[in-house]
Design brief:
This protein has 248 residues and is α+β, with helices and mostly antiparallel strands. It has a single domain, classed as CNF1/YfiH-like putative cysteine hydrolases (4-Layer Sandwich). The chain is 20% helix and 25% strand. The protein contains five helices and 13 strands. The strands form three sheets. The protein has a six-stranded mixed beta sheet with strand order 3-4-7-6-8-12. Strands 1-2-13-5 form a four-stranded antiparallel beta sheet, with no helix packed on it. Strands 9-11-10 form a three-stranded antiparallel beta sheet. A hairpin with a 2-residue loop joins strand 10 and strand 11. It starts with 8 loop residues before the first strand and ends with a strand.
Length: 248
């Protein structure tokens, strides 16, 4: 099994405390073969298990992780796992106040949304696709955090941009039924279809619920095939990981 070096990741430019560490991986490096080439970190997409295990080892080594990430079984739900006492990892968000405990979500067009408080004593990772955003996964995570939203800052990682994310009337209707404020984030593209701004929706939700500082990357998972996996571009593909932890 050959390994290409893992040397790069996206790191947010934000004013989080120095003890809060964040990385969002790219697809380069690792050992997975096409169509999972090459740094796939998901064990549920059909990739060889040995390759996924090796890639996860490379992740820990390349970025000096303090522990094995707490991998979730993501189902586009609004369930939030407290990594300090929940035994189940069937969730789409995770919170921890424990140092050296790594929260992680995997994406390939959905948004990773990472949170920390200004004191650097609490962090969270959210998997936010359109269904999770519409159902309230961000709000549920903020509600489960010990910190007040006014003490929280957020970073929205790489996902599919509005230019490439076309949805039907039924998706727009679900958003507007739950959250009518999201109307501006849909632009008509053709009859019965809309271009949906997931990043804009996520930012709006965070700001409406009191998160004062919200940063985001302008990277698009669909547009840049060399950097990112994209489920919309290729249904059989790998997953990136976005990780956050409090360093001791």
């Amino acid at each position: 099994m050959s390994n290409d070096p893992v040397t790069d990741a996206i790191k947010p430019e934000w004013s989080a405390p120095a003890c809060v560490k964040v990385i969002s991986t790219l697809r380069q490096g690792g050992c997975s073969q096409a169509p999972y080439d090459s740094f796939n970190l998901a064990d549920h997409v059909g990739d060889e298990q040995a390759c996924v295990c090796r890639n996860r080892q490379l992740l820990k080594q390349a970025f000096n992780l303090p522990a094995e990430p707490n991998w979730l079984e993501q189902t586009h739900s609004t369930r939030v796992a407290n990594l300090e006492n929940d035994t189940s990892r069937s969730a789409d968000a995770a919170i921890t106040r424990r140092v050296n405990t790594v929260a992680v979500v995997m994406t390939a067009d959905c948004l990773p949304v990472l949170l920390c408080n200004r004191a650097g004593t609490e962090v969270a990772a959210i998997h936010a696709g359109w269904r999770g955003l519409a159902d309230g996964v961000i709000q549920e995570t903020l509600n489960k955090m010990y910190s007040r939203a006014s003490e929280v800052m957020a970073w929205i990682g790489p996902g599919i941009s509005r230019q490439y994310f076309e949805v039907g009337d039924e998706v727009r209707d679900i958003f507007l039924l739950h959250q009518g404020q999201n109307r501006p984030f849909f632009i008509s593209s053709r009859a019965g279809h809309w271009l949906c701004d997931l990043q804009g929706i996520a930012r709006s939700i965070l700001e409406r619920h009191g998160v004062a500082e919200v940063g985001q990357t302008q990277a698009c998972s669909y547009r840049d095939e060399s950097q990112f996996f994209s489920y919309r571009r290729s249904a059989t593909t790998g997953r990136m990981a976005s990780l956050i932890w409090i360093e001791s």
